[in-house]
UniProtKB/TrEMBL annotation:
CC annotations in GO: endomembrane system; lysosomal membrane
UniProt cross-references to Gene3D superfamilies, sorted A to Z: MFS general substrate transporter like domains
Main location: membrane
Gene that encodes it: cln3
Protein name in the entry: Battenin
Annotated source species: Scophthalmus maximus (Turbot)
Amino acid sequence: METGSVNADPVQRPDANGRCSQWRNWTGFWLLGLCNNFAYVVMLSAAHDILKKQESGNATASTSTTLAVDFQAGNSSNSSRYDCNPVSTAAVLLADILPTLVIKLSAPFVIHKLPYGFRVLFCVIMATTSFLLVSFSSAVWISILGVIFASFSAGLGELSFLSLTVFFTRDVLGGWGSGTGGAGVAGAFLYSGLTQVGLSPQITLLIMLVIPVAMVISYFFLLVPPASLPQWKSRGAEYAAVGSEESQGLMDGSQEDEQEKSTPVTDMITGPLTFIEKLHVIKGLLKFVFPLGLVYFAEYFINQGLMELLYFPDFFLSHAEQYRWYQTLYQVGVLVSRSSLCCVKIRKLWALSWLQVLNAVLLLFAVRFQFLPSAWLVFVIVLYEGLLGGAAYVNTFYFISKESEDRHREFAMAAASVGDSLGIALAGLAAFPVHRYFCSL
């Protein structure tokens, strides 16, 4: 009897501890996703307000106020039937996405030399710097520099945290995806709410410094990292040391648990990937990167090239209010679908891509021929657009994690993150001539 009670504790405790660790890791990645994209979202809103305050006949500042988060309704300086701004919101989109694209194209080949702890601290420093620069800026170029810092932070953070998921069970990808989706909704609502109650943009930005602090807490105190995680030492320095220790750990775990692990360390300790191996991995990733890039191309072509032009003069909302609600409902769709991984998984990524392209074509013709009867129908379409985009993102990285070889998985997760940024950048370029054409009518 006594022996039975002694044996019961060791069986129950690991199970309880395991569930606790699983919830901590899921929550930690949710917060990391929120914090990583939150600064980027808020920076767009803050840069708009501060640049607008700074402008005094300055053409550069005037251009910068065409940020995607807002624009002036009823621009009297243009005679276009679309009531559009002289410069497309794609201008700011390119300024925001190009630094991220540069990071994602280059960093996967060298970032493995920098341990994760230092990467997180670097992202935190850049995000903090971006808030401070935009808050205290006295010139337009300083505010723009702050936005660039936010873009670098978001890009490096995304590829680093996606790579980080391979050291945990695969379900943390759902937490990361849901957190990034929540950043768009939470960032827009929180910034708008604080400024609406009377706080200045500068004070609001200083309050937002809590976000980098939350990232530090999430990574260093909430996550339960495995021994294999190269937090303060580079991968090469840990291959030999980790090998014997982790091999013994794998022998102690159940077969079912280890199949769920994203990265069995025994396969990773054979050495770093060579440049040729990385090129081979990238070739295998094209079946994921192309559909993801196409989804985001169509998505941001709608958001930055067409959404501003979908204006209904007889609707009860003003032009600016219609645009804000388009953006808000889009973000809600993204949040819902990026949180859906625990309920449904979609392997047919190309289907999501072509459905999004169909959305873009439909709305392009709607802008040209103005056959949609009401903004209510556009609300439904942009909500659906967000659902497609969020589903494509989270399912792409889930299946990359599931189908990549163990030794390739960490690099694959980082390298594939370029797909969405490349699609966004191309969409920004394509939106310029389209916007110019319609505004000239």
